[in-house]
Write a structure and sequence with these properties.
By secondary structure, the protein is of the alpha/beta class. It is 34% helix and 19% strand. It is built from 9 helices and 13 strands.
Length: 323
């Protein structure tokens, strides 16, 4: 396979590239280091099957010369993933998610790329009326600009698949954990507790129910679905585990790993911020029907993520540069 990965220096992108190279595939990586980190690419910078290009995908011409009909699958993972601050920076989700996705789709169309993989989100379901939430669940009112921007991306991808013959696979993720994790509740809690191990402040009442997926399982699922072709123009898969935890239960694992006993305070009721859905649990029957199954439990995923952060304190200490 020859693959192009946008968001190459990001959390999921860097893990995907590592797996693709291990399996003998040829990979082109693209990133602008706005949120990605050059150190995530260091281990395969000199790999003969890997090439990297620093590009700003908001520029419609950024992929010229890189995308061609020789690309078997284009993995579009580049995005803004900060759900919480979406209302503070309303242009960010539109630009970095929706407009960038259109630019990448246009580059794919012009170059004759036939395989397009997109990292969407379970946030498109908003406050879902059905739990566990299947792919064909009716969409409620959107609760975040992030989710709305990703849903707009899905619409564009579906239209391109219908109109231009692109074969598209859309994956709606729960939150992902693991190696190269730099953003989310685990890093937020670890940062607080390393600063002051005697107390921890939780957005919400701690009873919000969340499902998480370990990054190795996430990458497994992406490649598993690609290797089992259905011939359909567009397929949509939920990705997650068959379990969920409360925020407090996740915090229990974190404080246990750090060996601290903080006093907990809470703010925000059953919703920590606007767009924080109190119950996120996706129905993964469809991807599991292909034979895929997650291997790592949520609690083990949280534990491993804490260990990654402890081994890479630059993530939670702040002040680091993408490069």
């Amino acid at each position: 396979m020859k693959a192009l990965v946008t968001g190459a220096a990001g959390f999921i992108g860097s893990n995907l590239i590592e797996r693709l190279l291990k399996e003998g595939h040829s990979v082109i990586g693209v990133d602008n280091f706005s949120t990605g980190h050059a150190k995530f690419l260091e281990k395969f910078r000199k790999h003969p099957q890997f090439s990297f290009f620093e590009k700003n995908l908001l520029n419609p011409q950024s992929l010229e010369g890189l995308v061609s009909d020789k690309i078997d699958w284009l993995f579009h993972l580049a995005a803004n993933a900060d759900v919480k601050d979406g209302l503070r920076y309303p242009e960010r989700d539109l630009q970095q998610n929706t407009l960038v996705t259109w630019n990448v789709l246009e580059a794919s169309r012009k170059a004759g790329v036939r395989g397009f993989v997109f990292s969407s989100t379970g946030s498109v379901y908003g406050a879902a009326p059905v739990i566990p939430t299947p792919e064909d669940c009716p969409f409620p009112i959107q609760t975040s600009l992030y989710g709305a921007s990703k849903l707009a991306c899905e619409g564009l991808i579906a239209a391109y698949a219908e109109g231009y013959g692109i074969q598209a696979k859309i994956f709606r993720f729960v939150s992902i954990l693991g190696q190269n994790y730099t953003h989310g509740h685990v890093v937020d809690f670890v940062r607080q507790l390393k600063s002051d191990p005697t107390k921890i402040h939780v957005l919400g009442n701690g009873q919000q129910k969340k499902s998480y997926l370990y990054v190795e399982d996430c990458v497994d699922a992406l490649l598993w679905a690609l290797n089992r072709q259905s011939g359909q123009k567009i397929e949509i898969f939920n990705l997650g585990t068959e379990e969920y935890v409360t925020v407090d239960q996740s915090l229990d694992v974190i404080v246990d790993e750090l060996k601290v006993h903080p006093r907990r305070t809470y703010e925000g009721g059953d919703q920590g911020w606007v767009g924080d859905n109190p119950f996120i649990f996706l129905d993964t029957t469809k991807i599991r029907s292909l034979g895929w199954k997650s291997k790592i439990t949520i609690r083990e995923g949280v534990r491993r993520t804490v260990q990654f952060l402890l081994n890479n304190p630059w993530v939670y200490e702040g002040g680091h540069k993408g490069r």
